[in-house]
Amino acid sequence: MKIEMKSISKSFYGVQVLKKVDFTLENAEIHALMGENGAGKSTLLKILTGVYKRDEGTILVDGVEKVYNHPIEAEKDGIVFIHQELNILPNLTVLENLFLGKEIKNSLGVINKKKMEEKAKTALKTLNVNFPLDMLAGELSVGKQQMIEIAKALLVDAKLIIMDEPTAALTEQETSLLFNVIRDLQAKGVSFIYISHRMEEIFEVCDVISILRDGVHVMNKKISETDFDEVVRSMVGREIGDRFPKLTNTPEENSRLEVENLTKKGLFENVSFYVKKGEILGVSGLMGAGRTELAHAIFGSLKYDSGTTKINGEKVKIKSPIDAKNHGIAFITEDRKSEGLILDFSIEDNILLADANHLSKFGVLKQSNIEKRVNELIKKINIKTNTSKQPVKSLSGGNQQKVVFAKWLQTKPDILILDEPTRGVDVGAKKEIYNIIIDLASQGVSVILISSDLPEVISLSNRVMVMHEGKIGGILQKEDATQENIMKIATGGN
Amino acid sequence: MKALDIRKHGSLIGLLILTIIITSMNPNFLSTTNLLNVLLQVSVNALISFGMLFVILTGGIDLSVGAILALSSAITADLIVQGYPPFVAMGAGLLCGAIFGVVNGLVITKGKIQPFIATLATMTIFRGLTLVYTNGNPISGLSPEETVFSFVGKGDILSIPVPVIIFLIVFTILMFVLGKTTFGRYTYAIGGNEDATKLAGINVDRVKIMIYTLSGLLAALAGIILTSRLDSAQSTAGVGYELDAIAAVVLGGTSLAGGRGRITGTLIGILILGVINNGLNMLDVSSFYQNVVKGSVILLAILLDRKDK
């Protein structure tokens, strides 16, 4: 399928997110679409598939002008969007998922299971995968669920498949299987638009790369004619220099937070560590090592069985986030959408949430103070918006994360716990977040940085604590904190 | 923001259309006397609806308001009959309403029971207690002479009925609370994302208990006004009032999922229901048909509301 999008523009809340974008996709092409969060990638594709209406521009599909008002119309023409959050119903079987809403029925309206099974088998065979059709989809791995999505696309005769971060939750093996499937389908004439933040994959599987920056199509090249550096430069629009800023904080002698023998059966056991004033303590470990749960226990949002917490040498009882906040602890959780933000709220209201007391008197909000303070914070941590009244759900991932930071900076914390603070955040915003973290530590804030990104945790930490199956496997000084050493401890090979 | 504005105007436009239709059929509808009459008729439902709005904004529901109204009315009426001063009797009624609200709040937050189930149960309990307390008999003969108690329901100031003045004062205070205070902000926050609100270190349980308390208190206030107007407390008073309140809140554009809605919308919702009742009476429509019309208007409003989005 050939797609030509010409001079597409779109604005939200007075902010132009797409500026006369031209985008051409050739038949049987695998086309990478890259850009920072908020560059306009998903808006462009939502316009193509009829989720949003464009303000101006035309779209030609195989040379014919088209206007889709709904994704179903685009799907009828063979354009299928596979979202990052897969659209699989875990309580239905594989077969039921494959034919959801498109069940094959006889003239009496009774479902013809046999025919559906035949078609399903053919589709799975095309993909070179094989699993029982009567299995519940929820019991399959994410990689296999992804295959169901692709099979669904084949069943509607997809000619263009759009994939948003398809490998985010896949193992290496599943990823290479996925790439094989993509190449097979390409050979059969299917086109792909492939969105990913993972540079290596783009160079492995894509033919052509397009980059959007601030709503403008800034680069369109064959993948063989470009390289890693050029791609990053085009995305960010400037030299970002080193990926990680230099650590400029100097931890003081006294420890601010001490945790002793913290235990929650089945999650973590006898965890003891300390963080000094102005120190960044990295926390590394495999998924399920108990890092997030430990953070919640320290913050009072998870009940633990035994152990003590001391702040500035004094024993404290933290039984709820309220206690934690009163003791100067802030916690930026892993999942900003479900735990960090109120999506319907404006930037201002989200920032106010954790500490409205300093901006109100007898419970009455002081509007002029609020605006001044909020605008200060927006400026300080560079949230890209033209009004503090903008709903956070319309912000990009990186900007949303900055709002969560602003919310907790407003409480002026002494201890800041960060759980995967840069997940789903683009290169440029990542660096800004790193600078905020180092800046805070330089001002004496004690930071606990939980991260699965090894280079990140190594570069940003004064010490790295490695967890393995709920226990502390080891605490490494900066000079010993190499990827090899961390992985050795994290996998239990001490 | 845009969607919200359209919604706000949607119910306002509905109210205007209704007014125009009814006025064209009976011009007396727009007389000052009748308009004040409409306001007087809606005052009881208005007070309950304002409390219900707070509850619904948190994503909850309070089915017990009608029963709280009946029980606190009975208590107030009984104390008056026993010869207590009106202020004491009314104060006791309000206090009881607030306590019943606290009970709701505690069951929901500490007992971790869904608001629907929790208040369905307490509704049954409060209604039962009313029957026990009154033996099923009405308590009447409350104000043979003029007292503060009769003034609350039947008096007027500058020819504006006192119940109307009360509900407008409550409206103004609550509009301020929702828009300008931390408590109002937390109310919306809980409905928007309860987990995030908890993790922001906000005492969600306390805010919820306060909201159910407010709902109980306003139901009791509504009960006192109703009892004063009718000069008697009935054990069956307020049956179905919770549904009228929910209808008014929803008509006013508030999402039952919580987090979104305005008190001005609720006021418009209340007025729509009031105008329908009053208008159909003026047009001599049988009360049997009135419910059909009321239900249809609610459905229509919700359908239009969805189209706006």
Overview of this protein structure:
The complex is a heterodimer of chains A (494) and B (309). Chain A has 494 residues and is of the alpha/beta class. Helices cover 33% and strands 26% of the residues of chain A. Chain A has helices at residues 41-48, 71-76, 94-98, 113-126, 142-155, 172-187, 199-205, 228-236, 291-299, 321-326, 336-340, 347-354, 367-380, 397-409, 427-442, 454-460, 483-490, and strands at residues 3-12, 15-25, 30-34, 56-61, 64-65, 79-82, 160-164, 191-195, 208-213, 216-222, 255-264, 268-276, 280-285, 306-311, 314-316, 329-332, 360-361, 364-365, 415-419, 446-450, 463-468, 471-477. A 6-stranded mixed β-sheet of chain A has the order 6-7-8-3-9-10. In chain A, strands 16-19-20-13-21-22 form a 6-stranded mixed β-sheet, sandwiched between helices. In chain A, helix 4 (113-126) packs across helix 5 and helix 12 (347-354) packs parallel to helix 14 (397-409). The longest helix of chain A is centred in the middle third of the chain and has 16 residues, at 172-187. The radius of gyration of chain A is 25 Å and the shape is globular. The mean pLDDT of chain A is 89. With 309 residues, chain B is mainly alpha-helical. Helix content of chain B is 76%, strand content 3%. Chain B has helices at residues 2-25, 32-57, 65-81, 86-109, 115-134, 148-154, 162-180, 182-192, 194-199, 204-230, 241-251, 263-282, 287-308; strands at residues 139-140, 156-157, 160-161, 232-233. In chain B, the strands form 2 sheets. A two-stranded antiparallel sheet of chain B has the order 1-4. Chain B has a two-stranded antiparallel ribbon with strand order 2-3. Chain B is globular. Chain A binds chain B through residues 13, 299, 301, 320-322, 324-326, 331, 333, 338-345, 349, 352-354, 356-357, 360, 363-365, 367, 389, 391, 407, 411, and chain B through 1, 180-183, 185, 188-189, 192-193, 195-203, 259-260.
